[in-house]
Design a protein that fits this description.
Helix content: under 10%
Structural class: mainly beta
Radius of gyration: 19 Å
Strand content: over 45%
Distance between the termini: 54 Å
Shape: globular
Largest sheet: 7 strands, antiparallel
Order of helices and strands: EEEEEEEEEEEEEEEEEEEEEEEEEEH
């Protein structure tokens, strides 16, 4: 007897157009009000523009403490530098997984003057015991992200976690993130495994997906919308069907169930810890 894939769309979310950094235009998909529901994820931004004025200013030096940032590029080139002397170049199909830990200051600046800049930045919370860990990061080129095709008409890039017998480029013990970039041809149905312990969502960036097992209630998610998936005891995953050729992200993680105290780029467990982070940054202790 097959394992049930019974998660449904609990809520559809429209991203909010905004600007960040020195004036980069982006869409904030996972916002502050969803942090508890989608614990351990704090934010998801999507950026996509071939208009240089929307991205050229980039993200000059800025601090972080208490969480991890995951930048995944679909198109374009972005240069990372930090105050520990690290430097890396993000190129199409590549990913950077950065652990801010106890604190660092870094910049993310475009290394192009024209053309398409497209991708995502995800913020993943750290457990309280890990928030003051040593900062670090991994740059993973496109060729270093494992890919698999579990059935005809399906391509999966496994950025983090494990899916369809393929281990991803990154693994984390505490939050156990699953981060997949999927492409489905029109008409294809796919059963996607998701640990029953995890909060999960889909973000469709091309096409249109119907979500739900055949014979049950289904809802559709169009490009540019995030689908928060229901938490169902014992559910192994979700069934999706591409109503058009579609590309989407599946992101899932094990909740920390800890207090979240955030002030901009500092995410801690208490207000006092956030105030300490602000003081440390101003005093140059990052």
């Amino acid at each position: 007897m097959s394992t049930p894939y019974t998660r449904q769309i609990e809520r559809l979310v429209n991203g909010i157009p905004t600007q960040d950094g020195a004036g980069v235009s982006l869409t904030r998909v996972l916002t502050h009000d969803l942090q508890r529901r989608l614990d351990p994820f704090l934010m998801l931004d999507a950026f996509h523009s071939d208009e240089p004025s929307n991205y050229l200013a980039g993200f000059p030096d800025h601090p972080h403490r208490g969480f991890e940032t995951v930048t995944y590029m679909l198109a374009g080139r972005m240069r990372h530098r930090d105050n520990a002397g690290n430097e890396g170049l993000l190129e199409p199909g590549g990913m950077q997984w950065m652990t801010a830990g106890r604190g660092l200051v870094h910049s993310e600046l475009p290394e192009q003057e024209n053309g398409l800049m497209s991708g995502f930045q995800l913020w993943v919370n750290l457990a309280g015991r890990d928030k003051m860990t040593t900062p670090g990061y991994q740059d993973i080129p496109s060729a270093g992200i494992p890919e698999t095709s579990p059935q005809p008409g399906v391509k999966v890039r496994v950025l983090a976690g494990s899916a369809f017998g393929t281990d991803g480029a990154i693994r984390r013990e505490t939050t156990e993130p699953l981060y997949l970039d999927l492409a489905l041809e029109a008409g294809v149905t796919l059963e996607l495994p998701i640990p029953a312990t995890h909060n999960a969502f889909l973000y469709v960036y091309e096409g249109r997906l119907a979500v739900g097992a055949p014979g049950s209630e289904t809802r559709a998610a169009d490009a540019g919308r995030m689908a928060v998936l229901s938490n169902v005891e014992g559910a192994a995953g979700v069934t999706v069907r591409a109503e058009q050729g579609s590309r989407f992200l599946l992101i899932a993680g094990k909740p920390l169930n800890e207090p979240i105290a955030q002030w901009g780029p500092f995410v801690m467990n208490t207000r006092e810890q956030v105030e300490e982070a602000i003081d440390d940054f101003r005093a140059g202790r990052f």
